[in-house]
Structure formats: structure tokens, C-alpha cells
Amino acid sequence: MSTGELLNIEPQELQFPFELKKQISCSLQLSNKTDDFVAFKVKTTNPKKYCVRPNTGVVLPRSTCDVIVTMQAQKEKPSDMQCKDKFLLQSVVASPGATTKDITPEMFNKESGHNVEECKLKVNYVDPPRPPSPVREGSEEGSSPRASVDNGNFNDSEFKAAPRAFGERHEPQDNSEAKTLIVKLTDERNSAIQQNNRLQQELDLLRREANTSRGGIAFIYVVIVGLIGIILGYILKKT
Q1: Shortest CA distance to 110 belongs to which of 64, 159, 66, 67?
Q2: What are the residues whose beta carbons fall under 8 Å from the beta carbon of 30, sequence distance 6 or more?
């Protein structure tokens, strides 16, 4: 059992009886050994491969909470049956009466001065249980290896929030660049729209001026033809 100041975590390692093309689940039990409300959050290095329910929650004082971790069906079997995936369970004291809706990412921000307790768990593949043999064997072959927890030095940046369901988008670690790009593209789009509107206005103005010019030329032409007619008529009368 992994023991911290806030939560006891059992088991110490996530063990999946590996079978091809089959979703496999295992469970964690979180035990709150304090008189406080304790909020928790589960992260993993491979959020596309696992879903966790609940991935955040609150464990009531002196109570327990079960967390189900499900591994997506795998198409290939690892040659050495080794898995490099890891999980990070963060816990922090919450306000009295807190619920899951009261949990915010800021609560687990150590840089803000919050006392965040962390437990890092490894993932281990084990052979699926064998059907009972009619012949009693003398040794226990195929037994699961001893579970262990490694709370050594891990890079916290490799962990991402574990989704509640497969296909659910995990929270980005740093979306500042994406926001900047969105703002830039929006400004460029608005600028292009404004420029297009100005060009349209200038085109309409040129069309109106062209129509006015044609009308003026036609009027002068009528006046000239009229004058020529008057002159010819005068000359014909003289003759």
C-alpha cells in the first residue's frame, strides 16, 4: 500500500492482465485517513490509451473511493510484455463540504503554494488468469509479480490529465501558443474583410463616375447634332 499524509493508495502498481483486442480494467482504492475533505486528480503519460473514472473527485473524511482505470483494446502484443506508461495521482486538502464541482486546476498548482501530495504509479502487464487445471501442480506458475511503486524522480511535465472516456480531449499543458495563433488569424481575417469592403466601395464609386461620364457625353452629342440641324435648316432656307 502506498501511504501518504492524505491518502492511502491500493494497489501500488496498476496491473493489467493483457489480452489482445480487449478492453481491460483495474481498480485503485483511495482511503482518506484524515478528518479533512481531500480532492484528487489522476494524470497519465498516455491519455489516449487509458480512461479513468472518476479522474477527479473528493474523498470524504475517513472514507474510501474506488477509481477504475481502463486500458483501450490493443492490436499488438509487446514482445517483452513491458509497459513504460505511468500514472500520477495528486491529492490536496479541499474546503469542508467540497464536491467534484468545486475542484479546479489551480488547486493542484504547486507553484501557487498549494501543498500537493503526489504518488507516481507504474503500469505492468501480467498474463491473463489461466483456466483451472484438472491436475494439481506443485508450483504456482504464472503468478503475478510483486507490485511496487516508484516515487523516484519523474518529470511531472510528461503527465497529462487522464480522460473519463476514450476519445475525450485531454487538457493541454500550455495553450498560450494556440491562443496567440487564433488571435492572429482572427485579426488577419477581419483585416481581409475590411480591405474587401473598401475595394467594393471604390469599385462602386468608379462605376457611378463612369455612368455619369457617359451621360454627359451623350448630352453634348445631342446638343451638337441639334446645332448642326439648325444650321443646315437655315442654309436650306437661304437657298
Answers
A1: 159
A2: 7, 8, 9, 40, 59, 64, 65, 66, 67, 89, 91
> 5, 119 in Cβ contact below 8 A?
no
In a 10 Å sphere around its CB, with 0-12 CB exposed, 13-18 middle and 19+ buried, how is residue 33 labelled?
middle
Model confidence pTM above 0.70: no
β 117-126/86-94 pair status? antiparallel
Query: At 99, phi and psi to the nearest 5?
Result: -125, 180
Give me the sheet containing 50-53, strands edge to edge: 2-3, 7-10, 24-32, 64-71, 50-53
Handedness of CA 175, 108, 2, 53 (dihedral sign): negative
pLDDT digits (tens, 9 = 90+) for 130-174: 777 665 554 444 444 444 444 455 566 678 887 877 666 544 444
**d(Cα 8, Cα 6) in Å, to the nearest integer?**
7
Cell of 71: 486500458
Read off the pLDDT of residues 182-232 as tens digits, 9 standing for 90 and up. 777 877 777 788 877 888 888 888 888 777 766 666 677 777 877 887 887
